[in-house]
Amino acid sequence: MVTSYLIEKVGYYKVLIGLLLLTVVTFSLPEVVVSKYTFSAQMFIATVKAWLILMYYMHLKGEKTIGWSVLFSLLIVAFFFSIVMIDVNNFQYTDVSHITSPTK
Amino acid sequence: MGKSYFDETHCAIGHPKSTFMQWMLTVDHKRIGIMYAVVMFTFFFVAVAAALTMRFELFSPGQQYIEAQTFNQAFTLHGVIMIFMFIIPGIPAVFGNIVMPLMIGAKDVSFPRLNWFTFWLYIFGCIVALTSLFNFNISEGEVLFKFADTGWTFYAPYSLNTDTNVITTLVAGFILGMASILTGLNFLVTIHRLRAPGMEFFKMPLFVWGIYATAWIQLLATPVVGITLVLAILEKYFGIGIFDPSKGGDPVLFQHLFWIYSHPAVYLMILPAFGIMSEIIPAFSRREIFGYRTIALSSASIAGIGYLVWGHHLYTSGMSDTAKVIFSFLTFFVAIPTGIKFYDWIATMYKGKIILATPMLWALGTIITFAVGGLTGVTIAMVGADIHLQDTYYTIAHFHYAMLGGVVFLLFAGMHYWFPLVFGKMYNETHAKIAFALNFIGFNVLWFPMFIAGYMGMPRRYFDYLPEFQIYHQISFIGALIFVTGLIYMFTVLIRATKNGKPCGPNPWNATTLEWHLPSSPPPLENHTKVPYVDFRPYEYHHGQPVVKFDENMRRID
Amino acid sequence: MAHDSHDAHDSHVYVPEIAVDREGKEHVVQGWQGDYEGGKLGFWLFMLTEVMMFGAMFLALTYYYTLHQQDFLIASASLNRWLGGFNTVVLLFSALTMGLGLLKMRHGDVKGAKLMIWTTILLALVFLGVKAVEWTAEYHHGIFLGLDALQSGNEHSKPFGQILFFGMYFTMTGLHGFHIIIGIGLMLWLLKRINAQKVTPDHNILHFNIALYWDLVHLIWVFVFPYFYMIGAGDIAGGVVHGH
């Protein structure tokens, strides 16, 4: 009982250190990488952090039904993103649209 | 005879003595389902009245009875009530509540008090929507109603500019959406956790499969429209710019977000309806359902594909051609699992002992009307055809053939099928069959001319029209009268039966699923007194007789 | 829903039930009362709806980021990165205290658990305080919903991309802050339930679910923070630019 408590407690602190390190990386990264990649780099770090929180703080590890539900909803969100991004990237009326080239 | 759930109940708060308070506070899934039905059908008739008003106005060209602005508000009212208050809670809220726990052998849903809360959230949402209806100005002796005039889709930027009461309607939409989410959540947990021992997913009745697939749509799609409505409200109050073109906002984004929910929502409506069909067809063909697994999995795949096709509402919005092609392609896929279901139902009836009881008549009628609705849907999924047919009466006719002729007809079929279960009494079948005939004929006379009018170019939501469309509107009007007569007749038959119907025992249809094996009729408060071990398939018939039989302790004796 | 699942009702108690199959084997019938797994599943499903809500907002945000990339980077660079970063660390520690509180509760240390919940509430208030400082500063710089800079067609008007960026910034951080307030409310309620002995080391589903909720609030911030504060960090402007 007591040992399992200690092990779990150490686990929480380990994740905390990992998250703190990643936060430091968040701040120092823009100084290092080319600004073109800042956006993707930031989102990548956020995803790693989110994964740590999901797996360890939210105890998703080993949850079968819940794990699949989470995955399913994330896939749907990913699909929404991909289609809407395809649409907006192929926007055909950029030159004539009021919202993309406002009349000055 | 023991007490039924009409005699005693569990309450969310305390132990009230009065019958009225016992109904208001009840957490019993069967009572909550009945209350949903009462409220929903009341609103249904309000919306029917709005539609009938529009039909009167459209009887001949020009203005007759109502102002053009009132007409706009009438179709908004019709849409908002029918969609958000009637058909979205629809079958899950009524039969998902009443029948689903009985079918899986559960004592109640997983969170009974949440269920009670959800019902009242729904009522609260309805009240908010109605307040915008009764909000009016009186100026110079004229009453000006401020009910929203945007159509039920609230398209930006008009919904952001109109001075009618869109905000209350948006808030109501959000609250009703929350209620829908919580219903779905409750059902998902119930189906995952409370199935009777031995009942695997592939031993569940197909109605439960329909509810399960629906619940996933309620859970994951509804939040998207919820937040869209919130963003629209914030836009109107604080001007965050998101959908307002004068600040760079894109109204097409509103359409994307709106239809990301609202398209899956039509599958949310139809899937439990298909579930009802899958219950009725084997029960009245006295034959095991053909292709159980394909029906179950097609429900799941319709729900899955349903998330991916919203863009076919945006063909004329200025969306990119690339996206149009992708969406058109994906939309065709929905027809495949739907087709599988249809062939399975027809194959079930083949060589069966078909009994033409009222529920079966409704189901058979729906096979015709929904086939028309579904196939015309495929035609407007094509980008080229849709450019011509978008926003015409063709689309309206398609939608009503699919939703009214599919969902609502099957809801009526379910009402006739489970009526003896819920009330323990049987209605007068002869009268119920006449009511079906009136409805079926009236429905087709009402909507079919609209396909032709729409194909020839009659636009939807118009207050006035060219003289050459008059004949179609007049045929529709006659159909509408027959249809409304049929509706009133049908409800009269059913309501009379709650008082005068003959007691019919727990299993009048000789059906096989668990809800027909209750110890008494109407069911006792906590459903099955003994829960069976489920080691059988849901629709086992042999030579027209149910295979599985139970003793009084719900142990198998065959 | 967390509440429902363990709070057995005197009139509605679970009677253990057994179903017997044809071989005479006995199977326990699951009741809705005291269903820990069901309570957990229910709350996770609820959190998925939150994911979809914020997912849709991020979708809108990304839509406009695609259309107005440069404006977004400029607007992002003008936010106060250090205050945002400080809040990130505050939330990070609050997630830890919340988790440790649950751990203590599960291992019978009710007093320690309560202390941890109070610490979490304190950290949440710090977060809200910093947020208020930030919004006030922005208001004084003329950037707030309804002010001229975020309206179109006047001399202070910002370009479309920046109007949209700030519109979404106030909406999303505002809704996130709203979730923090709800979270504080939930934790206070949890403390009340613990004091009333309705939440105990053996009946901790409510505590478990509120801890999950708090992690979700943290999780949303993990994406909100870089999307608003950091994407402009590598921009030509470089470093930290305060206001205008």
Structure summary:
Chain A has helices at 2-32, 38-57, 64-89.
Largest pleated sheet of chain A: none
End-to-end separation of chain B in angstroms reads 26 Å
Structural class of chain A: mainly alpha
The total of beta strands of chain A comes to 0
- Residue share in helices of chain B? 55-70%
Q: Cα-atom Rg of chain B, whole angstroms?
A: 23 Å
Number of domains of chain A: 2
> What series of H and E elements makes up the topology of chain A?
HHH
Indicate the overall shape of chain B.
globular
What's the CATH superfamily of chain B, by name?
Cytochrome c oxidase-like, subunit I domain
Overall tally of structural domains of chain B: 1
Largest sheet report of chain B: 2 strands, antiparallel
Beta-strand percentage of chain A? under 5%
Secondary structure category of chain B: mainly alpha
- Overall average residue pLDDT of chain A: 87
Report the CATH architecture of chain B. Answer: Up-down Bundle
Structural commentary:
The complex is a heterotrimer of chains A (104), B (558) and C (244). With 104 residues, chain A is mainly α. Helices cover 74% and strands 0% of the residues of chain A. Chain A contains three helices and no strands. The mean pLDDT of chain A is 87. Chain B has 558 residues and is mostly helical. In chain B, 63% of the residues lie in helices and 3% in strands. In chain B, a hairpin with a 2-residue loop joins strand 1 and strand 2. In chain B, helix 2 (29-57) packs parallel to helix 6 (112-133). Chain C is mainly alpha-helical. Chain C has a single domain, classed as Four Helix Bundle (Hemerythrin (Met), subunit A) (Up-down Bundle). Chain C is built from seven helices and two strands, in the order H-E-E-H-H-H-H-H-H. A two-stranded antiparallel ribbon of chain C has the order 1-2. In chain C, helix 2 packs across helix 3, helix 3 (69-77) crosses helix 6 and helix 4 (81-106) packs antiparallel against helix 7.
